Amino acid sequence: MAIYGNGRIANELHHLFANKKPEQVTIYDLLEFDQMHYDGIAALDVAVEKCQIKEHQHIVDIGSGYGGPSRYLAWKYNVNVTAIELQEEHSNQANELTKYVQLGSKVRHLNADISALDTREYNEKFHVAISLLVFLHIPNRDQLLKNVSSILKLSIGKLFIEDWYCKYSFLPEEVKCLSEKMLCPYLPTKDEYIEQLISAGFGDIEFIDMTESWTTICSKRSEDFYLNREIEIQKHGQSVYEDLLSFYQGVDKLFKNGHLGGARIVATKLR
């Protein structure tokens, strides 16, 4: 997707290093651009509260992208994080960013496909799994959730998801946009999502509708990116800017149409 591609992070780093040396980079510098989900670090603070995350626990970040959430949790809450990312380029870049802020001892980056991962090595290892706007890209929910369940500790393992869902039936043009621009081949309804979690062994499920909040966030993001176009074009170039603007406007329109839903889901591994 445009939000990840076209050298966006390299452009951000080039802009950052114009003002300070790599060894001077802090977590605050990276927070300016390494949080790709809605609500930024506020959403991560909610995850810590909802899942009762404690110091030194083992957390797995599924679809960790450039590692922003993993680094923040390790830095702010002193936990150990395994960051699983499918795309090798993103995983390698995330590892470099983690080294910049000297969190390599707390955050381990793993280039792997969670749906195909041999989970025996990680059997009931993790206290909490988080995944932020990632499951929407994975059509095989049964295998996905089965694998996630297998690596969480029984009875105490928590799952925190922020994801899209099908609130109302999509129009044909929305299906095309979701598939081609958002790389989102399938979205369950709320009831289907809950049933899938139950089938994978999860219970105590809290499904919090975030649609209204995320609609506002996505609208402001699109508007701000357009209003700051001169700065963004200088940073990224015209082509990358246009790709990002098209992506932001596409998400904005999907939410405003009223058929796309957003959810924050918390569940416990019960079996």
Automatic annotation (TrEMBL):
Entry EC number(s): 2.1.1.103
Gene3D superfamilies: Vaccinia Virus protein VP39
Pathway: Lipid metabolism; Phospholipid metabolism; phosphatidylcholine biosynthesis
Pfam family, one: Methyltransf_25
GO BP terms: methylation
Source species of the chain: Didymodactylos carnosus
Name under which the protein is recorded: phosphoethanolamine N-methyltransferase
Protein origin, superkingdom: Eukaryota
Catalytic activity: phosphoethanolamine + S-adenosyl-L-methionine = N-methylethanolamine phosphate + S-adenosyl-L-homocysteine + H(+); N-methylethanolamine phosphate + S-adenosyl-L-methionine = N,N-dimethylethanolamine phosphate + S-adenosyl-L-homocysteine + H(+); N,N-dimethylethanolamine phosphate + S-adenosyl-L-methionine = phosphocholine + S-adenosyl-L-homocysteine + H(+)
Domain Methyltransferase: 59-153
InterPro entries: Methyltransf_25, SAM-dependent_MTases_sf
MF-aspect GO terms: phosphoethanolamine N-methyltransferase activity
Keyword set, alphabetical order: Methyltransferase, Transferase
